[in-house]
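re: ur question from earlier - yeah i can do the single chain one, its not a big deal. heres the input i used so u can compare w yours
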Amino acid sequence: MKAKEAITRDLNVNFIGAASAAEIREQLARCWLFVAPSVTAADGDTEGLGMVFLEAQALQTPVVSFRSGGLVEAVEDGVTALLSEERDVTGLAAAIASLLEDSSLRRDMGAAGRLRVEQHFDVRKQCAKLEQIYDEIS
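and the output i got, formated as C-alpha cells:
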C-alpha cells in the first residue's frame, strides 16, 4: 500500500521508511502484535522462513498472518501466532481483533513466541547441532 492509497482510504497509518536494526527492534518491542500477511505469488513463489517473524517472536510480539510458505515453520499457529488461510481477510481481521481485545492472550502468545525462538532458532544451538551432525558423518 502506498501513502496516497492510505490517504484516499482515510487510514490512520504511518509510513516510517527505512530504519536501522535497532529502530526496528524498538518498534517491534513496543507493538501489541505484528501483522504481515504474505501470499503465494502467481508464479508459485512463497515467503521463505521470514526472519522478521522470528524477530517479532523474540521480542514477545505475537504474529498475525496468512498460513503461507515458510511462515508455518517460523511460528506455531494458536500458540505464538494466529494464522488464517491465504487471502482470508475476514479471518485475518478476526485474528487481529482477538489479540487486540485480549491482553492475556497477547501476553501468553508473546511469551510462547520468545520461548519458541530460544528453543528452536537460537543460532548457537543450531550451529552446535549442525557440528554434531558433521562429527557423526565424518
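Residues 3-137 form a domain with the Rossmann fold fold (CATH 3.40.50.2000). not sure if urs matches, ping me
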